[in-house]
Design brief:
- It is a single chain.
- The chain has 5 helices and 9 strands.
- It has 154 residues and is α/β, with parallel strands linked by helices.
- The strands form 3 sheets. The chain has a 5-stranded mixed β-sheet with strand order 5-4-3-8-9.
Length: 154
């Protein structure tokens, strides 16, 4: 697992519109990178909507917000359009970014061990250093908590 003070692992993932988004594009401004389990589940939907509702507040602080899950671009597009989600959603189908950020865990499902995504959020500063690494977060109210942490960066 990553911790505050670690350099944020680089990534390049497609968003819902299949545009490649990389960490390097956000150099010079704070980035909130939240990992969620799956599109269209109640908790993940609530979290993505809350981040979208606060997106302008993050932008006023110069920060961008990205969501990441193991769903593909098409599912992300449908999820975004269905719920009016405005934050960019990145597809991590190959789980490379999820592994780099330590958000995958082994869980037993029906007697079989499987990789499962852990809800986690990282606040990355202007220099690409992780300032906050939060694993196992709650979905509801989380976006407002992250907004407060970003305010404290400035």
């Amino acid at each position: 697992m990553l911790k505050a003070g670690d350099r944020a692992p680089g990534f390049s993932n497609p968003d819902a519109d299949m545009e490649i988004i990389s960490l390097s594009q956000f150099r010079g401004k704070p980035l909130v990178l939240f990992f969620y389990v799956r599109d269209d589940t109640p908790g993940c939907t609530a979290e993505a909507i809350e981040f979208s509702e606060l997106e302008n507040d993050f932008a006023k602080l110069g920060a961008s917000v990205l969501g990441v899950s193991r769903d593909d671009c098409i599912k992300h597009g449908e999820f975004r359009d269905k719920h009016g989600i405005s934050v960019r959603l990145l597809a991590d189908k190959e789980q490379i970014t999820s592994k780099a950020y330590g958000v995958l865990q082994d869980r037993e499902v029906d007697g079989v061990m499987r990789k499962s995504a852990l809800r986690a959020t990282f606040i990355i500063d202007k220099q690409g250093v992780i300032r906050h690494a939060l694993y196992g977060v709650s979905s509801r109210g989380h976006a407002a908590e992250m907004l407060q942490l970003v305010k404290e960066l400035n």
